């Protein structure tokens, strides 16, 4: 074929035109894959932080009936909030063994680490069984008018 030969006719969307479009799409998608993580790093998502009084809302007592729990973000750290028979308590949700995030097992009424089956007491955060070397760190809780707040500090 000659260098200045006309493009082969393959219908309204010839082979060369298709290859150019495919190459353009590949370049645009590659740039997007490179730029997206950079933008995500430079502009991280907003997190719920402590208000002016140093308190983070964790829900209401109607959202968290007795015998249930949920993990709440307190800044960048997870906290497990448990509504026990004695009242609402909260602990760091990071297991003291290897740093896994703990959860609440309603059948055993224990805070459980799923990594190595560590069990903690929801009453005081102490280790009941398993490999964790220390109890969960307590977090101060305030309940006002049915609203649960985690107190920073």
Give me the side-by-side strand order of the main sheet. 1-10-9-4-3-2
The helix-strand sequence is HEEEEEEEEEE
Overall domain count: 2
- Calculate the terminal CA-CA distance, rounded to whole Å: 77 Å
Helicity range: 10-25%
Q: In CATH, what is the homologous superfamily of the largest domain?
A: Rieske [2Fe-2S] iron-sulphur domain
**What is the CATH topology classification name of the largest domain?**
Rieske Iron-sulfur Protein
Low-confidence region ranges: none
Give the structural class: alpha+beta
| Main beta sheet strand tally, sense and closure | 6 strands, antiparallel
Rg computed from alpha carbons, rounded to a whole number of angstroms: 27 Å
Oligomerization = single chain
Binned strand content? 25-35%
CATH class annotation of the largest domain: Mainly Beta
Number of strands: 10
Average of pLDDT: 83
- Helix count? 1
Specify the CATH architecture of the largest domain: 3-layer Sandwich
Shape assignment: elongated
Descriptive notes:
This protein has two domains: 1-45; 55-151, Rieske Iron-sulfur Protein (3-layer Sandwich), CATH 2.102.10. Helices cover 18% and strands 34% of the residues. The protein has one helix and ten strands; from the N terminus they run H-E-E-E-E-E-E-E-E-E-E. The chain has a six-stranded antiparallel β-sheet, with no helix packed on it. A four-stranded antiparallel β-sheet has the order 5-6-7-8, with no helix packed on it.
């Amino acid at each position: 074929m000659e260098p200045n030969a006309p493009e082969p006719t393959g219908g309204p969307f010839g082979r060369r035109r298709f290859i150019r479009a495919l190459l353009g799409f590949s370049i645009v998608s590659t740039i997007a894959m490179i730029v997206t993580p950079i933008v995500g790093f430079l502009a991280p998502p907003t997190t719920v932080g402590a208000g002016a009084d140093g308190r983070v809302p964790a829900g209401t007592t109607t959202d968290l009936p007795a015998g249930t729990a949920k993990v709440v973000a307190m800044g960048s750290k997870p906290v497990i909030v448990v509504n026990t028979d004695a009242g609402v308590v909260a602990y760091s949700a990071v297991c003291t063994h290897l740093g896994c995030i703990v959860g609440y097992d309603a059948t055993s009424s224990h805070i459980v680490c799923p990594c190595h089956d560590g069990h903690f007491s929801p009453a005081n955060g102490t280790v009941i069984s398993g490999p964790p070397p220390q109890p969960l760190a307590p977090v101060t809780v305030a309940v006002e008018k049915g609203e649960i707040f985690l107190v920073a500090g």
